[in-house]
Write a structure and sequence with these properties.
The chain is an alpha+beta fold. The chain is 45% helix and 13% strand. The protein contains eleven helices and nine strands. Strand 2 and strand 3 (46-51) form a beta hairpin.
Length: 332
């Protein structure tokens, strides 16, 4: 529950909230170490209060990133007040409907929502690094970060979750093909990327898409964000739907990558490895067993991607074995 001191600060900073009864609803936000509260009063007015700590440096830059994106026309929540000393943010309430909420709807309903989302992605990716001068960005997507994502997967998914023998993991992790993918992606021209561009970080309001949880903004490849959305383990998109949406993004984007489809495959590989590493870490290290439920779908998606990339037959065989033997059930 919201501490009385934070409730009192809200009343002081927002006088309308001092003249009416307040209803407070704690909100769950994935694996975040922040606390979110929806604060409502009787006339229907509401706002979101965020309490963040110092465990993750990127949390301190959320407000500056939000104001930068808003200034450049990206749909993000309006910031009402920020108290950096106390780690408090009061901001616009975008409602309760995210893109994930449409997962069971027909394609006719979901398609325009995904199109609006990809329009926002393309707009974000059109912003130059020079425009972000003065904004604290997170670590650039370079070869070292791509290799770190791969290692995160091997340690926390294949190791902590599936308990593969260390020598087998080591053989997979030293693959020349994987290192080559990290190097090739790192050589490409970078734009600003969200880093966690998935369905629960896209709010739907007034028929449009709004971005949240963008504090990981950094230089990278726009197709990494697209891969995050189209291979989102929280949602089951058909292959034909993914193909349509990738083409749609291409029609909206300024990308001049001559290897567009290959880059998308490589970004998909990286993103799924990162997600699986996160699920293993959150599930087994942080005790969030609910994240382990997403591993089966993510493994299946990674297996499909790996099958289309030369030089990864060993990894494909391992993923196929894990799926076939039903080892992808959550376990401790």
């Amino acid at each position: 529950m919201l501490p009385d001191s934070l409730l009192q600060q809200t009343r002081i900073r927002f006088p309308d909230f001092a003249r009416d009864a307040i209803e407070v609803t704690p909100l769950e936000k994935g694996g975040s170490d922040r606390k979110f509260y929806r604060i409502e009063i009787g006339d229907g007015s509401s706002l979101i209060l965020v309490k963040y700590g110092n465990h993750r440096e990127e949390n301190r830059h959320y407000v500056a990133v939000a104001e930068f994106l808003t200034k450049h026309g990206v749909n993000t929540p309006r910031i009402y007040f920020h108290d950096p000393d106390e780690g408090l943010i009061w901001m616009q309430d975008l409602g309760e409907i995210d893109l994930w909420a449409s997962r069971h709807e027909s394609w006719e309903i979901r398609r325009p929502l995904y199109e609006k989302t990809l329009i926002q992605a393309a707009h974000l990716h059109s912003l130059t690094l020079d425009q972000a001068n003065g904004v604290t960005l997170q670590a650039v997507f370079d070869e070292r970060l791509y290799l770190w994502e791969q290692g995160y997967f091997f340690e926390n998914c294949l190791g902590n979750h599936f308990h593969l023998p260390p020598d087998e993991i080591a053989a997979l992790a030293t693959s020349d093909a994987l290192r080559g993918i990290a190097r090739r992606l790192a050589e490409k021209e970078r734009v600003l990327v969200h880093r966690d561009f998935q369905s629960q970080n896209i709010m739907i309001r007034d028929g449009d898409a709004w971005l949240i949880d963008f504090q990981g903004l950094r230089p990278g490849l726009g197709l990494y964000d697209v891969a995050s959305l189209l291979h989102d383990p929280y949602v089951d998109l058909m292959e034909v739907e993914k193909e349509y949406l990738l083409d749609f993004y291409g029609s909206q984007s300024d990308s001049r990558d001559p290897d567009f489809e290959e880059t998308f495959r490589f970004c998909s590989l990286q993103r799924l490895m990162q997600a699986l590493g996160a699920y293993g870490f959150l599930g087994h290290v942080k005790g969030r067993a609910d994240f382990l439920l997403h591993i089966p779908r993510a493994v299946d998606a990674l297996q499909t991607i790996v099958a289309a990339i030369p030089g990864l037959s060993h990894l494909h065989d391992v993923l196929s074995r894990l799926a076939r033997d039903a080892y992808i059930q959550p376990h401790n």
